[in-house]
Design brief:
single chain; 7-stranded mixed β-sheet; 4 domains; Aspartate Aminotransferase, domain 2; 457 residues
Length: 457
Amino acid sequence: MYLINAIKKFIKNKPILFTTPGHSQGVDILPEFKSLIGKKAFKMDLSELEGLDNLQNPTGAILKSQQKASEIYNSKASFYLVNGSTSGILALMLATVKSNEKVLIARNAHKSVINALTLSGAMPVWMNTQWIDEWNIPGPISPEEIQNCLNNNPDIKAVWITSPTYQGVVSDIATMSKLCKERGILLIVDEAHASLWNFSEKLPTPAIQLGADASVQSLHKNASSLTQGAILHLSHTSKINPEQLQQCLNIINTTSPSYLILASIEASIEYLSSKTGKKKLDNLLENIDKFREKLSEYENISFLEDNEQYQIDKTKILLGIKDVSGYKLSDFLQEKSNIEVEMDNNKSILALTGIGTNNKKLNKLFKAIKNAEKTLKKAKTQDNPTPLIIPEIIYSPQEALHKQSKIVNIKDSVGLVSKATIVTYPPGIPILTAGEKIQEKHLKLLGSLAQIAVIID
């Protein structure tokens, strides 16, 4: 634990600080806040001082920690991210495509990919994912769809894929990688929700082991780092220049990285790669299987499961009760059992599990779902239109950013070009991106989503 040990050594030395941060290891802090998070947290809130290294130009503890992480993940290089996976996505776009070059992107991409296009000036070529009507969620990306898009756009420089999806659907990265390598095109995978995959053979294979050039994982989503902790990997066969990528990360990342977050990234990786961590993960996966088995005895309860078209990440529990909307089920769990789930829609709820999810929590969820199945009144759920609409692009997102704009009544917007990107939360998938022509079906979709109180940004 190179970084954690360096921090412990620094604190033990009890230096007299005339540096940032101004609270000087918690000397003068609002008492209510200090009691909330504890005195020790402030002791670790440090800056780039002697022996603590510098994330923007690592040569000591951070470099050694990242190198060890690279060995654990079997990557060419791995980079710690304190601004979440978003910072890795922004940096990868800057490092791999130039202004006006084309990037093939699945329409279920996260909002950060749109922001990366805005920064880089690259032009998106959109492709749709399959849609799983039964659950009203995006499905896998078809390799055949990628091949068709590449045939129609031979000047594409990179392919950008989200796998797994927010709901845990996994795409065929191995076949996509082969397609991209045959054409000399980069394959970059947003693996934000795959932070446990490297530590169990019972989970899907990570993208860089299947030939992707790069991937980004959010260690805070399913692993155990603090929020914003993430990691970026380059595969051994990647054509991305690590030095250029570091330069782009330095453009994107803060020059005052949180050592609390950095230490939590290292701790998360150390724990997951240890015997104790791997055993805990095995127990989690076994408990999830038992949870599913118990609920599968109820004919009105169903789960998103593996099938011939796609694999799923079992740590994402997408389930539904027949003729009960996910919104109603989510409200019931919150009101009756004080259970918060990650997401709901008209068909289901998404319960995310992580390394900290124990059997006690799963048993409480089981009892609450069982109670909901008995209690909630059944009514045919209403189908929502798919939010994935392939648009007509007028300007790149970067061009749209600098165009003059005006506010109009939404009813009068059809045929005009959107100045802003409009996404639904969670997880942040675009309905419209900046520079796209507004269509009648966009308005219908926005209207139907507003009626069911979906968060639109």
